[in-house]
Design a protein that fits this description.
Among the domains are: 32-118, Glycoside hydrolase family 3 C-terminal domain (Rossmann fold); 181-293, Immunoglobulin-like (Sandwich). It is 12% helix and 29% strand. It is built from four helices and twelve strands; from the N terminus they run H-E-H-E-E-H-H-E-E-E-E-E-E-E-E-E. It has a four-stranded antiparallel β-sheet, with no helix packed on it. It has a three-stranded parallel β-sheet with strand order 1-2-3, covered by helices on one side. Strands 4-5-8 form a three-stranded antiparallel β-sheet, with no helix packed on it. Helix 2 (63-75) links the parallel strand 1 and strand 2 (79-84). The longest helix has 13 residues, at 63-75. The radius of gyration is 23 Å and the shape is globular. The termini are far apart.
Length: 294
């Protein structure tokens, strides 16, 4: 894996002293809490799943998993939770733990990938493709919307779902769409915007780690268009060494400024003043400006 080096003095099958010791417990009992209290770091793995024909009954992990995290975190302030889920999930303990690695549905190299992140071989750079809510059915979906009545589903939510619902209703999610932390920090500056492209600069402002940032572009339509407060129109991932700065360009076309016109059954460009937002997530906007579309 990246950052790991071979050692010619190591012979397969030999026993060697390591600078750390790992203890494994399947639950919070059996001495796990005492071990966590004495450890430098506690790592708790939790998972939930679903499959075709077997949806989850709720967005929560099971009560035993949540209790385990709460108990371990109370004993060890440096508790890391590695969470696996097929989609949105509740994290009532989020403010009690030091770090969360949310893996969604990982593949067969999950163990190596997590080890690379935990031991610092790789700087995390992923972003949430979903919004994590504070509670079940936070958006208030009705039975008519899902699963429907008499076999008919009414999509009365329109465009206001996911991060768009949270923005419209000024509700703070547990974790916003596009969120994701790193072992370094990034600054944004020098925003310019035209109908053809939006340009800004992103810099790795950290002192220790190279990393990658996913810059995100959102547009806010004129109010008469009745669109969500902001809509994602592009994202670019840029890898930067310590202190390095790069230009990020988001290319736009007329469709990005259009809405579907039900009269002509075609896309129609909206004229007026657009807001331009660039940031690290849908709720972490670093730069903004405006442009007029005529």
């Amino acid at each position: 894996m990246a950052g790991r080096k071979s050692d010619s003095n190591i012979i397969s099958g030999g026993c060697y002293e390591h600078p750390f010791e790992i203890s494994f417990f399947s639950d919070a009992g059996g001495g796990a809490t005492d071990a966590a209290k004495l450890a430098d770091v506690a790592i708790v793995f939790v998972a939930t799943s679903s499959a075709e024909g077997s949806d989850r009954g709720s967005l929560s992990y099971n009560s035993g998993d949540n209790d385990m995290i709460t108990q371990i975190a109370a004993a060890q302030p440096k508790t890391v939770v590695v969470a696996v889920a097929p989609g949105q999930v509740l994290m009532p303990w989020a403010d009690s733990v030091a770090s969360i690695i949310f893996s969604l549905m990982p593949g067969q190299m999950f163990g190596d990938a997590i080890a690379s992140i935990v031991f610092g071989d790789v700087t995390p750079s992923a972003k949430l493709p979903i919004t994590l809510p504070n509670k079940d059915n936070e958006q208030g979906f009705t039975t008519s919307q899902y699963p429907g009545v008499n076999g008919a589903v009414t999509y009365s939510e329109g465009l206001f779902f996911g991060y768009r619902w949270y923005d419209k209703n000024n509700v703070k999610p547990k974790f916003p769409f596009g969120h994701g932390l790193s072992y370094t920090t990034f600054t944004y500056n020098d925003l310019t915007a035209t109908m053809a492209k939006v340009i800004c600069k992103v810099k790795n402002a950290g002192m220790l780690h190279k990393g990658a940032e996913v810059a995100q572009l959102y547009l806010g339509f004129p109010s008469e268009a009745q669109e969500p407060p902001k809509v994602l129109r592009g994202f670019q991932k840029v890898e930067l060494d310590v202190g390095e700065e790069a230009q990020v360009t988001f290319f736009l076309n007329q469709t990005d400024f259009s809405i579907w016109d039900i009269s002509s059954h075609d896309w129609k460009v909206v004229q007026g003043k657009f807001q331009v937002y660039v940031g690290s997530s849908s709720r972490d906007i670093r730069l903004n400006t405006s442009m007029t579309v005529e």
